[in-house]
Automatic annotation (TrEMBL):
Domain of life: Eukaryota
Protein keywords: Cell cycle, Cytoplasm, Nucleus
Domain Cyclin-D1-binding protein 1-like C-terminal: residue ranges: 206-310
GO cellular component: cytoplasm; nucleus
Protein known as: CCDB1 protein
Chief site of localization: cytoplasm
Length: 348
């Protein structure tokens, strides 16, 4: 007991550099989230950028391992050693942020956002690890510390998975693919729920507080199903739209000029609005159906889809050979929206 009491002040002193490190990393994280990159300091070379980013992420992962191991056993780390470890960690994380700042906005905001998010995740992971060590027992490696160390490793392993095709084109394609996956899932879930005679709440267990599900209005009427058929048409148009836009971005997307890069960014920005709009519509389709809410959510989704199609049509990814499907999907959106308006006219 005496030895433990004597060791406590030394342990507190040894951990002081960690508190300073945590503060420095928190300040760095704020700068990464809010800061802007430099422009035009030297010619930008994308291969050199990726190599440097990969190296800095790898070094940061190694420093996280060293830091965690230093505080994983009964032998106390000295204040001097802790300061050296903290300085090495801080240098490694600053190097990651510095390389992120190399990436100019001219290379595309979609690509920059992906790299920024990956950089921020590394900094956040290191802050979490530092906080875990500060609150962990002095003489052993805690489960939380193991998890936090693994979190830094995972964040640092993201670089190979970041889209590295033709600048912004690959980043935008990955955004579109992710949106398409979400919309596909929502569509499949609603198709499953709409199977004739099925209880859409079948996956919700009876609850003592809420009462029996039989006490609720949990089934669709025939009128509901007619309305929802057109809503499903809009959801299917969303899936087709994303699939087609993804195809033309892959086939025709270029990043040779600021205008082309900006057009790709515009497509990514508006496509990001599709999946939440699909989700909102799907949620409003469950019984008891509020027809006005369905109409409003359908109108919002239709507006987003029309905007995606318009941006696609006026961009470089849509040569004359691709204009046919743009026109067809625009008509499909209008057709389904008009049917929804007719079904819900008495609600206005």
């Amino acid at each position: 007991r005496t030895a433990v009491l004597e060791a406590a002040p030394a342990a507190m002193a040894a951990r002081e550099p960690l508190r300073e490190l945590r503060g420095a990393l928190c300040a760095l994280l704020a700068r990464v989230r809010e800061g802007e990159p430099g422009e035009g300091r030297e010619p930008f070379e994308l291969p050199r950028f990726w190599d440097a980013l990969g190296q800095t992420f790898q070094v940061t992962s190694q420093e996280a391992t060293k830091l965690s191991l230093a505080f994983s056993g009964p032998v106390l780390t000295s204040a001097e050693d802790c300061r050296k470890l903290s300085e090495d960690v801080q240098s490694a994380v600053i190097a990651v942020a510095t390389v992120y700042y190399w990436l100019p906005k001219g290379q595309g905001t979609t690509l920059r956002k992906m790299v920024r998010d990956a950089t921020a995740e590394v900094v956040e992971g290191m802050i979490q690890l530092t906080e875990t060590i500060l609150s962990a027992p002095l003489d052993r490696l805690s489960q939380e510390q193991l998890i936090s160390t693994g979190g830094v490793w995972g964040a640092c392993e993201q670089v190979p998975n970041l889209p590295r095709g033709e600048y912004n084109q690959a980043a935008v394609a990955s955004v579109l693919a992710a949106c398409l996956g979400v919309v596909k899932d929502a569509l499949e879930e609603m198709e499953h729920a709409l199977v004739e005679g099925q209880d859409p709440y079948s996956d919700i267990m009876e609850d003592e507080e809420l009462g029996f599900r039989g006490n609720r209005d949990i089934y669709w009427s025939e009128a509901d199903r007619k309305l929802l058929s057109s809503c499903m048409g809009l959801m299917k148009a969303s899936k087709a739209c994303l699939k087609k836009v993804l195809g033309v971005v892959k086939a025709h997307g270029k990043a040779d000029s600021p205008e082309q890069i900006a057009q790709l960014d515009d497509l990514a920005d508006i496509a990001n609005e599709i999946s939440p709009s699909v989700d909102e519509l799907a949620l409003s389709m469950y019984p008891p159906v509020n027809e006005l809410a369905v109409r409003l959510n359908a109108a919002k989704l239709a507006s987003v889809l029309k905007k995606v199609l318009e941006i696609t049509k006026t961009s470089h990814v849509c040569p004359p050979s691709e204009e046919g499907w743009v026109q067809f999907l625009t008509g499909a959106v209008d057709h389904n929206m008009n049917k929804i308006k007719n079904f819900t006219q008495d609600q206005l």
